[in-house]
Write a structure and sequence with these properties.
Elements lengths: L4 H15 L12 E6 L2 E7 L8 H9 L7 E6 L12 H8 L3 E6 L9 H8 L3 E4 L3 H17 L3 E4 L8 E2 L8 H10 L4 E4 L3 H8 L6
Parallel strand pairs: 3-4, 4-5, 6-8, 7-8
Antiparallel strand pairs: 1-2, 1-3
Helix pairs in contact: 3-4
The structure holds ligand AOF.
């Protein structure tokens, strides 16, 4: 797939929108959506705090009638079904008359996992996947880790940018219990500085490197 600098800039904007929502959207991943018509952004949104409404669910109505024939940049595959009984994001995009959807990475959740892209293609939309895939995957890796383990992911960072928050714990704390507590509070991706705490996490297999 050959993407233009403009494609990259619009996807970078979608990634920035989602990054700003990190830590606020459990039980859903933070997703960014930018809608472009004739080279201009006509609407944009990120997953709402608490995980709903989804990014596309907000951006599509905000774009209004201008959305006909537009290109949508989204950091995660639009959902093809909902756990909540609402309409899927793939439905909103096809109903609105969107022409092209550019996706950073696919969503392995049972509500998407190819169902989102299939629904879009079945209605004749052009679907392109993989633009800024690494950045898109970083946005949802903590969400997937939390689903699999019940605990937030912890990585070493120097500045904490793009993380839900900083992991701090007393020297004698039970780290698994602390992480489970933070997972229940909705955290998915935490950072810690290199040092004693990071070493203790690593020894217990709780640090992702
Ligand atoms: N947050 C988010 C998505 N999140 C995905 O949608 C799935 C179903 O969501 P729900 O019915 O709300 O539980 C959920 O499992 C998650 O993988 N999808 C999107 O198209 N856009 C969004 O902004």
């Amino acid at each position: 797939m050959s993407w233009t600098d403009a494609d990259r800039a619009f996807m970078a904007q979608a990634i920035d929108l989602a990054t700003a929502r990190m830590g606020e959207t459990w039980p859903n991943p933070a997703v960014g959506c930018v809608i472009v018509k004739d080279g201009r952004i006509i609407a944009q949104a990120a997953t709402a705090p608490g995980g709903r409404p989804h990014a596309e669910e907000q951006a599509v109505p905000a774009a209004g009638a201008e959305i006909e024939g537009a290109t949508v940049y989204v950091t995660l595959e639009p959902c093809g079904a909902r756990s909540s009984g609402r309409q899927s994001c793939a439905h909103f995009l096809t109903e609105a008359g969107v022409e092209r959807v550019v996706i950073a990475c696919l969503d392995p959740s049972p509500f998407a996992a190819g169902r989102g892209t299939e629904r879009l293609r079945a209605k004749g939309l052009t679907v392109e996947t993989g633009l800024m895939c690494d950045e898109g995957a970083t946005l949802c890796e903590g969400f997937l880790h939390r689903l699999e383990t019940g605990r937030p992911m912890v990585r070493i960072s120097t500045d904490g940018v793009g993380f839900d928050g900083r992991f701090v714990a007393a020297a004698k704390a039970d780290l698994v219990t602390e992480l489970k507590r933070l997972g229940e509070a909705g955290y998915t991706r935490l950072w810690t500085s290199a040092g004693d705490l990071a070493d203790a996490l690593r020894e217990q297999g709780l640090l992702t490197e």
